[in-house]
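Why should sequence recovery work at all? Because a backbone constrains its sequence more than one might expect. Tight turns favour small or flexible residues, buried strands favour hydrophobic ones, and helices have their own preferences. The token representation captures these environments compactly. In the example below, the structure is given first.
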């Protein structure tokens, strides 16, 4: 029997939903142990200036240098009352996939006062964060995904434009734009998501078009979350092979345990082209189990993952695993190195749902400027630190990162 589950990743109520033979969580609460052979880095000043490792100068950025592809969702949030929740059978702090009875919910919630819209979805969140940290030039980040030809699609396009992301959506009229409604009651949120059009991306109708492929070719760094393996693995492969053939950087995310469990074949088909692999400790543990690594040590898992077969031998694969409040582990050469996260008072933490997307976004911001790995991780930690002190994957007007 197929179960549905929800992966929260974004602004107030941003979520990514998938169907799978099993239910898996996205947000770990456990910490992995640190074993010998793992190096620990000293904590760095958050405000230290970053420079290019080879030139000592900030790398000039061009439009469309960063490419992302994934499942776009329009996040819709509004304050509601208990009667609204009861009407649609919603529970406090619940996270569900929209059913037939919830269709009217999306129409009703937009009629309420103080409705907020944000461009959401895991990959879109990450490239949006990267663009926010870049500030200018605008449209360094490009994003591909599928939406519907409807009002929500128009709002999503507007919100992506406000974030200065060059979003080139594949628009179709079979399914409506994917949405995630965040029904807010006091300090509680009930999330209802409808992936809809996000599941309808077609390589031959969008990625293969000459004008769109030219944008892909302009990029030098590529990022696709593992969630997109459930939609268009052939699109991922085309982009990954282009990056490998042209010695560009292709990044991917394990995204959730169910990706390794139930989409292992397409994941491993892409893996030889992955230059940088992201994940959290739960996803790393599941990946290790599926590949028979026979270890639960996070550092050893990272090193074994790094040594998996790779096409472009000019670039050694880098594996980066976050562990919530605990150190981030990354492969440096043949070793696993621990990078402490930014200290924060637990009372200042508002919402950790967008932390993973934000970390990748900050990392990509530094990576696109050719900063060394340590600086990329520092930028990732900064971005995640900002996001967890706010509701959803939102951010202030300008970053305070140097």
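From this structural description, the recovered sequence reads:
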């Amino acid at each position: 029997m197929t179960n549905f589950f929800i992966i929260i990743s974004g602004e107030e109520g941003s979520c990514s939903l998938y169907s799978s033979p099993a239910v898996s969580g996205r947000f770990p609460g456990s910490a992995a142990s640190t074993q010998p052979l793992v190096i620990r880095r000293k904590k760095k000043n958050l405000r230290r200036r970053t420079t290019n490792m080879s030139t000592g100068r900030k790398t000039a950025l061009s439009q469309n240098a960063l490419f992302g592809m994934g499942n776009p969702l329009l996040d819709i949030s509004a304050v509601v009352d208990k009667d609204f929740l009861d009407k649609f059978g919603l529970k406090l702090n619940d996270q569900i996939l929209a059913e037939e009875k919830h269709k009217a919910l999306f129409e009703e919630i937009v009629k309420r006062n103080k409705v907020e819209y944000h461009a959401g979805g895991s990959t879109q969140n990450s490239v949006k964060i990267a663009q926010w940290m870049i500030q200018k030039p605008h449209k360094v980040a490009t994003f591909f995904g599928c939406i519907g030809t409807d009002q929500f699609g128009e709002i999503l396009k507007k919100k992506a434009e406000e974030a200065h992301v060059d979003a080139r959506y594949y628009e179709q009229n079979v399914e409506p734009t994917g949405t995630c409604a965040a029904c807010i009651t006091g300090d509680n949120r009930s999330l209802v998501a409808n992936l809809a059009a996000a599941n309808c991306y077609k390589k031959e109708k969008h990625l293969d078009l000459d004008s769109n492929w030219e944008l892909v070719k302009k990029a030098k760094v590529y990022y696709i979350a593992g969630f997109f393996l459930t939609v268009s693995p052939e699109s991922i492969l085309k982009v990954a092979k282009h990056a490998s053939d042209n010695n560009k950087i292709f990044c991917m995310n394990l995204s959730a345990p169910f990706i390794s469990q139930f989409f292992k074949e397409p994941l491993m088909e892409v893996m030889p082209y992955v230059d940088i692999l992201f994940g959290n400790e739960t996803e790393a543990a599941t990946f290790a189990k599926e590949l028979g690594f026979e270890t639960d040590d996070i550092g050893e898992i990272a090193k074994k993952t790094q040594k998996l077969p790779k096409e472009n031998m000019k670039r050694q694969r880098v594996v980066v695993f976050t562990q919530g409040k605990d150190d981030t582990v990354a492969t440096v050469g043949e070793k696993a190195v621990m990078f402490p996260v930014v200290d924060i008072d637990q009372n200042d933490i508002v919402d950790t749902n967008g932390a993973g997307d934000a970390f990748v976004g900050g990392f990509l911001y530094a990576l696109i400027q050719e900063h060394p790995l340590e600086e990329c991780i520092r930028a990732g930690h900064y971005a995640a630190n900002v996001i967890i002190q706010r509701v959803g994957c939102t951010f202030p007007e300008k970053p305070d990162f140097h």
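A few observations help interpret the result. The longest helix spans residues 373-387.
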